[in-house]
Amino acid sequence: MKFLVAIVVVGFVAGSYALTDEQIKKGEAHAAACAKETNTPPETAAKLKTGDLSGSDQKTKCFVKCFFEKAGFMDTNGKIQEQVIVDKLSVGSDKAKVQQLVKKCNVKGTDACDTAFKSFECYTQNKAKVF
């Protein structure tokens, strides 16, 4: 699987969603831009892609936030955009199950980077329970 709606799709639900080519290309572009913006090493992004959250630091958390913002999953004030996530990730999937996961994983962190990361962590931990 490609670096898709990058960390979100691959890391959260590896293989559970049928994404369009356009979504895949946008995700790859967002991930590349965020890696540059946050100076995140490729190895870190690759670990996130597989759902490996070990050793995550503030830079990693801000990479996730950057991706979430570019994907429309989070606004610039750090608020998770549940409906956007559901709309984008329910292509070819059971929308009710996606909604359940998104609602469960809309968690608040200490700042916007931490909120994005905690949400990502929740998706990673709970995807198997939902799908």
From TrEMBL:
Its main location: secreted. Residues 1-18 form the signal peptide. Gene3D superfamilies: Pheromone/general odorant binding protein domain. CDD domains: PBP_GOBP. It comes from the Eukaryota. It is found in: Secreted. Keywords: Secreted, Signal. GO terms for biological process: sensory perception of smell. InterPro entries: PBP/GOBP, PBP_GOBP_sf. One of its GO terms (molecular function) is odorant binding. This is Putative odorant-binding protein 56e obp. It comes from Corethrella appendiculata.
